[in-house]
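Q: Okay, next protein. This is Tetraspanin from Mizuhopecten yessoensis. I've checked the sequence twice, so it should be correct. Can you predict the 3D structure?
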Amino acid sequence: MTTESSSCRSELFGGVLIGIGVWAFIEKNRFYHKEVQTVYDIIFDLSVIFFIIGFIIFILGYAGCIGALRENICLLKFYYITMIIIFLLLVVGAVLAFVFRDKVKQILVDVLQQNLITRYQDDPDGQSTIDWIQEKLYCCGVNGYRDWNSNQYFNCTEDNPSPLRCSVPYSCCRDPDVLTPGVPNILCGKDVLEESGDISIIYTIGCVDAGIRLAEKELPIMGGIVIGLAVPQLFGICLSRLLEGQVMDQRARWAQTHHGHHQ
């Protein structure tokens, strides 16, 4: 019953995530339409991510739930083999990320600069994401606050007509709502990219380094989260494998008994 109930709950949860993803995608495209040009357009689109994760959880939940209820060997095998593959991919990915952490960090920096920094203000999803990260991690830019020089609205070139020239997003500011409480001043970081700019009013550390520092500081919590995610997966794999064995034993006994009656 544990396998059945947990799988059926997963199926329901997956359906909810699919619904949220579809709703968010429709609502977002009512006001802003973004063409998918690269895989990063999908990675940084939360509505699509919700849909994909929800779909995977729904399919696995369906296979586990129906497989357990109907004692279907094929569905049970699909469930635990897929779970094993996902678990191994996560473990291998984590090991490779640790071994090649410098390379991974550089790739992460390049991807974030190309898809979040340079497209800030042109992509509402990306803008909300980078603002949230900078506010929560007390950071600015990917490598540092000068990353914003690569954005067409903030760069410090003399021919830049933007009123945001030589500034950084309000989420970089230490006190963005100093003028009106609760209302951020989008010009709070004005002129900080100038050589003589006052950088004391903004965070200067890059968000990648800030994220790494936070992960190292909260290592026990991160470890607990990883274990909390891994244990249910392993538990589900073991239970579904056990149930498959029980079903096959019952079928073998039934076949043996049925064959004996015919003799």
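A: Here is a summary of the prediction. The CA atoms of residues 25 and 47 lie 5 Å apart. The mean pLDDT is 83.
Q: Noted. On to the next one.
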